[in-house]
Design brief:
The complex is a heterodimer of chains A (374) and B (342). By secondary structure, chain A is α+β, with helices and mostly antiparallel strands. Chain A contains twelve helices and eleven strands. Chain A has an eleven-stranded antiparallel sheet with strand order 1-11-10-9-8-7-6-5-4-3-2. In chain B, 57% of the residues lie in helices and 15% in strands. A seven-stranded antiparallel sheet of chain B has the order 4-3-2-1-7-6-5. The chains are: A alpha+beta (374), B alpha+beta (342).
Chain lengths: 374, 342
């Protein structure tokens, strides 16, 4: 399932296997197909910089084509069972969506500085529309993702997203995140179950007993972290009162900063932990006809990837972005598999339908992402 | 030589091996079971070339052919992938073009951030209607009044004298008509002074209490007046907004991590704001000298202010991220300005 930009490849790696799948649950002949990712950092570096340059030269107009070429690079370099993925979006559709999205972002930024009332109104409207925007984004990505000449579909109605993406979100907030795992479960159900490949629908069967453990672990560690930080911070303040001068005070200043950095690093790591665990749960509880999926992302690998990407990107002022994207895609491909039960040749085409790109682009520009596919 | 490829009928996910050839303007498909088909080349759509990704041919009957990229395809279809992406692909395959792109992108970004954006922000700020400046300031004041401000306990006579001396100090300066001085008690903020975009300048009882002479307070007020003269409030707001827009434009597609974008952006915006503080300092020194006062008062006030801050915070990594230049640097600048006068 479609995820944030740059993550599309793996996300779409849903392709499945024969639906018709001799429905015979359990032909007993399960074949494991692992996607292969052939993108190379050096090659993508060139594509990325040409994208940027043409984007600047055309004052941003080209960025829609750039987006399509980026996506196509990741899709096209991902092969499953000998066939590559194809990204079909029309740059013009993306350009329109992008203009809308940037208008909204600029309105948000300016109003946050000058017209706080308008800003809150906009934020509220955006918040209220978010489920709808998420559905539009999912539809756009699904119908523009194809494998073996057949495209994916996302066919849930916008209104249906208000439960998982607003109602449950509020419930989770009201209960101090205690219902967060259930919210995740509902969202995964909505997203996975809303997708089809050809005519075959994805099915999702997760249950709370598997969604709670990662959350409880994160909750425990997070609470511990807060407590430790609180103690360290009050100790520092206390010590600061007594040592206003000299090297001790200087060491104290450094210590406070170090504690802050550690605290944020801890939160960053917890965020990754949850995302990885839930991404695995999403895929491992999803099936397409008789076929299953296997996502085996490892938390410590992803932490290392994200942290090292972050450091590399910051230290090179962005030059390392292409490399960072390629190694993430490679890792994801290596930790994903389709367990095909029976043949994969019997998926059948479904009718075409048009949907606007604005939803997808709004999500990109606001960096909301849907951390489902990871 | 025929190209090995895979054929999909467009109706199912079944894959069939096929070999592609071309003769007399016809694309020829030869299947393994000896079946053959052909289509006029101009009726077949091909996706634009991109790295070493496979090419996809769309046949008129809805079928698709996936084939590894190869020079024959270019010869058969002759740029049918579209002119825009054809040009992009041409650039992407040239090492020189890539290096030049990288250099141009970096140069354009740096030049824009260094010159273009500040210029743009100044132009826009100068045209900003006073009503917006006022509205933006009202919001800030309303918030501060609720949370921090309390009635000043500085004797009314001293407040009046500070107000008079401040008005004399800035009399005749550009935009001085909008400047209004307010003295408030703000225990939560401590010794501080700040200027809002519409010219309201606030100074706290705590700062006045810390100052030994009115000259020291006036030196700080001259600095705040500098912010108003140069429209720093509005320019800063515009610049920090646009840094994010630009970072989003450049890396939005790419980074997938808003953190990676926001860290450099934060560094950049605090860099801008350090530039503003220097500009306001320079304005203050120059104004004080013109009025026959010494910038030394500014130096002594800064010393007093920084004495209240733990040394470690002033010099450590926090100092680097700080929105104001480090105090020692500002004190030295004030003393240089005072010395230059003699």
């Amino acid at each position: 399932m479609p995820a944030t930009p740059g993550e599309g490849t793996m996300s779409e790696a849903i392709p499945a296997r024969p639906a018709a799948a001799m429905a015979a649950a359990g032909t007993g002949r399960v074949v494991r197909h692992q996607p292969a990712f052939a993108g190379r950092a050096g090659e993508y570096f060139g594509i990325w910089f040409v994208n940027l340059l043409l984007g600047i030269v055309t004052l941003g107009i080209y960025s829609a084509w750039a987006k399509v070429r980026s996506e196509r690079y990741f899709y096209g370099n991902t092969t499953l069972a000998g066939s590559s993925f194809d990204y079909l979006a029309d740059p013009i559709a993306i350009l329109k969506g992008r203009l809308i999205a940037y208008a909204v972002v600029i309105a948000l930024l300016l109003s946050s500085k000058f017209l706080p009332i308008l800003y809150f109104a906009l934020i509220l409207a955006l918040f209220a529309l978010m489920p709808l925007i998420i559905v539009l984004g999912l539809r756009f990505r699904a119908r523009n993702s194809a494998w073996r000449g057949l495209s994916f579909r996302f066919d849930r109605e916008g209104g249906a997203a208000y439960g998982p993406f607003l109602g449950w979100q509020l419930l989770s907030a009201i209960t101090g995140t205690l219902l967060y795992p259930l919210m995740k479960l509902k969202q995964h159900e909505f997203v996975a179950g809303g997708h089809r490949f050809g005519r075959k629908r994805f099915e999702f069967a997760g249950d709370a007993s598997r969604y709670y453990p990662p959350y409880l672990v994160a909750l425990g560690i997070g609470a511990g972290l807060m407590l430790a930080f609180g103690i360290a911070f009050s100790a520092a303040i206390f010590a600061g009162v007594h040592a206003a001068e000299g090297p001790a005070a200087q060491a104290l200043g450094v210590g406070v900063v170090a504690a802050l950095v550690l605290f944020y690093a801890g939160m960053f790591a917890l965020g990754i932990f949850l995302r990885v665990r839930y991404a695995n749960l999403l895929w491992n509880n999803t099936r397409l006809g008789p076929h299953r999926f296997e996502s085996s992302l490892r938390v410590r690998d992803m932490m290392w990837l994200y942290a090292s990407n972050l450091v590399a990107i910051v230290c090179t002022l962005g030059l390392a972005v292409p490399w960072a994207m390629i190694r993430l895609a490679r890792y994801r491909a290596a930790h994903f598999a389709v367990l095909a039960d029976g043949g994969i040749d019997d998926f059948v085409r479904d009718q075409e339908r048009e949907h606007a790109a604005a939803g997808a682009e709004l999500i990109d520009a606001l960096d909301v992402g849907i951390d489902l596919g990871l | 030589m025929p190209l090995p490829a895979t054929w999909y009928d467009g109706e199912s996910s079944r894959a069939r091996a096929v070999r592609l050839g071309c003769a007399q303007g016809m694309l020829q498909l030869a299947f393994d079971d000896a079946e053959t088909r052909q289509w006029p080349l101009e009726s077949v759509a091909i996706n634009p070339r991109l790295g070493r990704t496979p090419r996809i041919l769309r046949l008129p009957d809805g079928a698709r052919v996936e084939v590894a990229d190869s020079p024959e395809l270019e010869a058969w279809f002759q740029g049918a992938g579209g002119r825009i992406e054809g040009f992009a692909d041409w650039l992407e395959r040239r090492r020189g073009a890539i290096i030049a792109s990288a250099a141009l992108v970096l140069a354009a970004t740096l030049l824009f951030l260094r010159f273009g954006m500040p210029w743009l922000a100044r132009e826009v700020a100068e045209r900003m209607p006073p009503a917006i400046e006022r509205h933006a300031s009202d919001q800030v004041v309303a918030m501060l009044e609720r949370i921090h401000f309390k009635p000043s306990q500085v004797p009314a006579a001293r407040r009046a004298s500070l107000d008079r001396r401040f008005r004399e100090l800035v009399a005749g300066e550009p935009r001085s008509a909008g400047m209004r001085l307010s003295i408030v008690r703000a225990p939560g903020i401590g010794p501080n002074a700040f200027a809002l975009p519409d010219g309201r300048i606030f100074v706290t009882d705590e700062l006045i209490g810390l100052a030994e002479t009115d000259e020291e307070v006036l030196a700080v007020l001259a600095h705040e007046a500098g912010h108003h003269v140069h429209r720093h409030g509005m320019r800063g707001a515009l610049e920090s907004s646009s840094v994010f827009v630009i970072a989003g434009l450049l890396f939005g597609d790419a980074s997938g991590s808003s953190l990676a974008v926001s860290i450099p952006a934060t560094l950049l915006t605090s860099g801008f704001s350090r530039g503003y503080e220097r500009e306001a300092d320079a304005y203050a020194f120059e104004l004080l000298l013109r009025r026959g006062q010494s910038p030394k008062a500014f130096a002594s006030m800064m010393r007093r202010l920084s004495a209240g801050v733990p040394k470690g915070l002033e010099q450590g990594p926090v100092g680097y991220l700080s929105t104001h230049p480090l105090s020692p640097e500002r004190i030295a600048a004030a003393e240089r300005a005072a010395a230059a006068r003699r």
